[in-house]
Each structure stands twice: as structure tokens, then as C-alpha cells.
């Protein structure tokens, strides 16, 4: 039944494996006859109440953290708020440089906040994409 290749010839392991297959067979059939209980979402998938500012932005009184982040990213992409800083120096290599905010598909690490995003991101003009989760955490009402 079990080859010595699997257990490298160890008779104790082969005997334990044979005994384990007989014992596990009835439990597998018993588990198949039990009805499956649908679990409720928990953790970041659980819908929780949100602050008034986030409620106004999303339009719903409670939402899961993952759905909130998805909706914010949809808004950012829809309004083309992802930009990268590009620094262009003058040809004469003077110290004065012009900094422009241009959309750059290669490096979209910063998000320019418009009026709606400023209300949920503490009035910041620019937010890094890694900051979004941290800035949103204060908008979820903690319940015990």
C-alpha cells in the first residue's frame, strides 16, 4: 500500500500511516454529512459604522475596510488624481528648478487630494499610496 520510497523504509512511520488512514476514514464521511455553516465576515471584511466624513464620501452608513479602500481607489482613478513629481532643471543648470505635477504611468506613488479627498485625509494636499489605509483607520468606529 505505502511504498518505502515515501517513508524511506521506516517501518514505524509506515505503520502509523496505515493506522491513520483507517482512523481518518470515518471522520471524513461524518464531516461530509454535516451541513455546512456559512460563516459571517469578520476582520477587515466585516461591515462597520463609519465617520460622518467617510459616510458622506461613500454614501453608505457602514462598509467594510476593503470596500472603502476599493471605492476610494475608484474615485482616484476616475478623477486622474494619481501623479508623480517630475523635476525639470533649466538648461543653464541654475539652482532654480521648476517642479511640475504631471501624470506619470510609470510611477504613481502620490495622490493629489481634491476637496472630497481632503475631507477624509485630514486636509492633506498630497497623500502617498501607502498612507491611505493608515489615514482611513480613524474613520472606522471601533466597537467591542
Automatic annotation (TrEMBL):
SUPFAM superfamilies: SWIB/MDM2 domain
CDD domains per record: SWIB-MDM2_like
Gene3D superfamilies given in the database record: SWIB/MDM2 domain (1.10.245.10)
Domain SWIB: 44-144
Protein name: SWIB domain-containing protein
Taxonomic path: Eukaryota, Viridiplantae, Streptophyta, Embryophyta, Tracheophyta
Amino acid at each position: 500500500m505505502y511504498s518505502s520510497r515515501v517513508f524511506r523504509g521506516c517501518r514505524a512511520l509506515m505503520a502509523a500511516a496505515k493506522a491513520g488512514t483507517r482512523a481518518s476514514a470515518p471522520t471524513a464521511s461524518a464531516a461530509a454529512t454535516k451541513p455546512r455553516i456559512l460563516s459571517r465576515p469578520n476582520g477587515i471584511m466585516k461591515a462597520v459604522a463609519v465617520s460622518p466624513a467617510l459616510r458622506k464620501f461613500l454614501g453608505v452608513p457602514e462598509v467594510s475596510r476593503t470596500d472603502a479602500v476599493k471605492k476610494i481607489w475608484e474615485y482616484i482613478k476616475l478623477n486622474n488624481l494619481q501623479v508623480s513629481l517630475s523635476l525639470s532643471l533649466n538648461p543653464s543648470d541654475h539652482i532654480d528648478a521648476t517642479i511640475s505635477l504631471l501624470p506619470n504611468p510609470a510611477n504613481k506613488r502620490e495622490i493629489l487630494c481634491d476637496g472630497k479627498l481632503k475631507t477624509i485625509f485630514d486636509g492633506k494636499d498630497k497623500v502617498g499610496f501607502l498612507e491611505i489605509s493608515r489615514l482611513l483607520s480613524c474613520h472606522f468606529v471601533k466597537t467591542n
